[in-house]
Automatic annotation (TrEMBL):
InterPro entries per record: AAA_GajA/Old/RecF-like (IPR041685), Bact_Antivir_Def_Nuclease (IPR051396), P-loop_NTPase (IPR027417), TOPRIM_OLD (IPR034139)
Protein name, entry field: Uncharacterized protein
Pfam family, one: OLD-like_TOPRIM
Start and end residues of each Endonuclease GajA/Old nuclease/RecF-like AAA domain: 12-395
TM annotation in the entry: none
Domain OLD protein-like TOPRIM residues, every copy: 448-522
Amino acid sequence: MYQIFTKEDVLMYISKIRMQNFRCFCDTSVEFYEGLNVFIGENNSGKTTVLKALQLIFDNSVSKKLSIDDFYKGISSFDEPPQITITISIQETESEKIEDKAVVATWLTKLNSPCEATLTYKYFLPETDLEEYKKELNERDQSLISEWDILERFLQRYVSRIYAGNPISKNRVESEYLEKFDCTFLDALRNVENSIYNGKNSLLKNVLNYFLDYNLKSSIKKLEQDLEDTDSKAKLDECLTKLECCRNEFRGQSKDLLDSIRGRLDTGHILSLVESTGASVCGKPDIEGELSESDILSTLKLIIKSNSGMQIPIFNNGLGYNNLIYISLVLSNLEIITSDHFGENAKIFPILLIEEPEAHLHPALQYNFLRFLKEEIKNKNISRQIFVTTHSTHITAAVGLDSIICMESHKDHILARYPSLVFSDKPDDIESKKYIERYLDATKSNMLFSKGVIFVEGLAEQLLVPRLAEYRSLPLDKCHIAVVGVGGSTFKHFIKLFGGGIDENNKNYTLSKRVSCIVDVDPQKIPIEGRNRRWKKCWPFEVGQNLDSYEYKPISSVITNLEEALSKSNTENVKIFYNKTQKGKTLEYDLAFENKDSPLLVSGSVEISKDVSALIESSSLTPEDKSKAIFAAFYLESVEDTKGSMAFELANNLINNFNLSEGSLEFNLPLHIKNAISWVCRGVCNEPQ
């Protein structure tokens, strides 16, 4: 990729946007990262609206006039004509380019470092029309004419303004400086073939023209910066001579070509008709022409050369690959418009807006493309800032937490959340962030898009919990609940994203969705005496039976550690669910305990040992529970080495049984599984009575 800025430059950036009465936003502020910003969230959570708001200020090709549908539908008072306000904050970083300071000098609203500049877009009814607006509003027949009808009548009188600095002063921004920004928008429904087909298109033509004799022009530019060196002067003269020779050679060849064409024209016959009409009285017409390099570039077409050597027209190429080609041309054009090629007309602040880059791209291409954007903007090789909206888990996995902004839609407002800012500079938070980013694949990143999350310990739980939820009439897929396997010891890392175990100061950045953590009880014991004392898992009915020889833990350290973390953070979003009956062990054991002798449970032919049978008999369990414990222990022993395949078979059995119109078998859920599913779905799905 081609260099626009030197690596030492740390530049001003758009740090925040505030949107008032605009579409789905009543009054919402969104803070931005310096480079890549990736917006994720459910439909109608405001992702595209943020891009539209940026366009209203920075994109000269977009109409500044809005429609009635652009007003926030929750406006409560029309006593004063509603107005739409969009405020942009531009903030300096550690150092800036001189051009940046010159552009924003009259926009500054904060002079202390880091200084801040402000641009404000307003769409409003002028004061000259206020009296008439209020008169119509007060005199209307409320049964026939709504306040929105009055607003729509006056909308044609609304005007738009972009103010620089403090909006109270109403200083309109100078177009000369605003034009130093370039805003390129790639929408989700883009059909790019016409934009890349041939050189007649301005985008392709600009790129081709810029890269004509690119090596020579680049060498000249470098040599011009070191004219004090004698060798540089000589090399510069040599390059200039070569460039002029190339141009002269083209002129000669194009003249010969035109002369050849003219020689083939029967101009005499054409001109005889001119003379017959008397048009030649003041002079004799003739044919002349000139062929420029730009004219030739307009005839060039993009083609695709396949590995077999075949040439494929761009229209026959895949939509996904054509989108990537188009975006490549856009990125090249960003280099062009910010280069010295345009002199004082060069842009200094290119902004790229991409809506759903996953359109037409398979997962691997999505991942690679976003990794490319992330690295290039990190090195300041392309656009100053990039804003992306997406529904793709592959894209979120590619960019990591530091670029993600989660847009959360609540009943009457929308909030922006920042997963990367959840973590402090403390060692355990640094470790948690690194761990999450290392394992944030397409499956796990689904939790960022969901309405709720169930964290489980392993593959068996991932397969079975969604099936078990159907027996509660709460289909997790329809409720948009993600089931994510994280492993017992790593719950602590993931719950921080949702407010579990973090500093109070970072709570505003956490994702405000419900999280159920389903954890195995896994009781343990350790010998009181002996050399190699270590905790080992034991049966639940074994706990407390031999206090002279063993110390027992009725619940696993995973549970106690999680409870401790949650007690410190005082969060209401994250809850732990485990078997509190003192009869539980693992998911497999608990399911078997609650469904003794169920034919839905697939097991092998392993028999439990006499020692286990004796422990059950000597326990304080009731006769019924002893029978359940024997079956559960037998079941767990038989599937211990094949938990994955067992879970797969059981999941299939549960699906088939659930779908039976008649004769379906009852299947009981352990209470903590019921509660975990019900709690995470509350407010998202209607729970059965």
